[in-house]
Amino acid sequence: MRNPLIPLLLSLLSLLWLAPAGAADEAALAARRDELRHALQIAERGSPAQYEAVAKRLADHPLFPWLEYARLRRDLGTATPGRVEGFLRRFDGQPAAQLLREAWLGELIRRQDWPRFLATYRPDSDPTRRCAHAQARLAAGAVDEGWLKDVEALWLNGRSMPDLCDAPFAELQRRGRLTPELRWQRIELAAEAGELGIMRFLARGLPAAEAALAQDYAAFVESPHERAARWPADARSRRIAMHGLVRAARRDPDGVEARLAALTPVLGLGEAERGPVLYQIALWTVASYGEASARRLAAVPASAWDARLHEWQVREALARQDDAAALAALERMPEAQRRDARWRYFEARLRERRGERDLAHALYAEAARDASFHGFLAADRLNQPYALCPKTPRTPAEIAAEVASHPGLVRAFELRRIDRPGWAEREWRAAVAGFDATRRIEAVRLARRQFWHDRAVFFLGREDPDELRYYRLRFPLSYPRTVRAEAERHGLGPAVVAAEIRAESAWMREARSHADARGLMQVLPATGAAVARRHGIAWGGPDTLYRPVTNIRIGTAYLREMIDRHDGKYFLAMAAYNAGPAPVQRWLAQRPDLDPDFWIETIPFKETRDYVARVLAFSVIYDWRLGQESPPVSERMLGRDPPPDRRRAHVCPSPTESIAP
User: Are 248 and 229 in contact (CB under 8 A)?
Assistant: First the structure.
């Protein structure tokens, strides 16, 4: 009889075998890291003889494809087709080969080597390569019905197309397929995209009378004018009028409202055309809380409403402190949207103010089950613990070993270690694209060990919201001693500092924004230099902000300055940290008497509105991560630190039980 312990023993032996092998592999890669960096420098700048010498020594390295890529990419202008094609065959399917294929196709376009382009090309969405493919087929004489339809598809684009499409488009016209109707279709697409130059260029190919009308259409899209009243009252004129008015509504809702009223009877504008225009008029009026907001919202037909406009209708009423209008707007929301914790909370607040205590309590209880800013606020209104139900990944050992040894992930992690983030990103995305949920979550867990923390932000919760409960993955806590020390130095809770870092950079120490904010707390160089000077922190130029400890010191000091500047109120300081102090002062002047939760919800900038709510919610999760109970969020956002007996515990209720205090 077979011993039932044998499979278990074999499994244990396999685990013992796999773990040391992984450690040994990492150690081997670490030992060769400097050699690889040096080899890449030679690949990108050295002589052929130097490269051949180092390449031989690294032929067995997992990153050898990238080393070869670097060399070939450098020499692409003089490379022989055989060498490039050999690389593409050898590493087919790997990101390095895909990236080189794209570059090689660009070189073949430059050489106008159309036969080789056709042999190398694989369909993708890049307009230049798609146009080149049409040109290559034209050069080869492969003009059939399929080619004609492909070129027609390229033509029907409202944006400017690459010059490589010129010859295929000319052939389309020569064969009588570039009809005025097809030209008009593209003019309308260009009008929708706001591409005035394309509209005017296309108009020149129409018969004279039609060309004049098309030019006037372009003028209207640029700036709506009175001549539109003399256009033909047909479907095309109505669509062009709609596109032009939609485009102008953001900068001039008053003028567009008047122009829409004048054109509606003469062009016969129906709901299909008026709806999108009225939507934009209302949106850009209410987004600045203009006096006509309520009237313009009421004018939008039901067919044009969406979730965004429903939200703004509530905010506009909250800003006017019109509780009845706000409740009516909430009641008009689709039920799925209305059940969101944010709107359950505000409905409860409004009903509580109307004396509907039982209904308000029920709504608070429903919202309080959500681990979010508004869920935590709802729990505060009920004086009960915060609902927090963390999950921990449970990956079978054999799958964990499989993921850890996946060649694409091995390459991705090693590329990050040698400061090649763009290449690492390509390897990561290619690897996880083929993973199921278990393997993807395990990949995120491995990335966390490599301080690649934003993988959890971008690759958890997209398909399954329950993955958002992997709080330890999604809310890392690096440099805890520095966070605690700087928080204590400036009289802040460490959870608040950690939450700011998570919201700003997802703990990516090399993060850099389009505005040039840098590092963990996303500090602008000018701000960093000034704060460092005021607080006696060593400053060695903008790259100082990539040093995590220094960044935390500067960012925490700056946050404290914002808090002091705003009378100790965290929610205002957080808004100023994100948007700057000037907008915050403007919003305070516009809505000085709103309660803090209502004021946050009526912040005009979505980014800042969500940012403040996000940081405050994250602070609760970081309290949990730090092993401490949370101050009520409603107190924390005011800068208050209540005694221990008023702090909130973190509990995970069952689907049916209430959260008892």
Answer: no
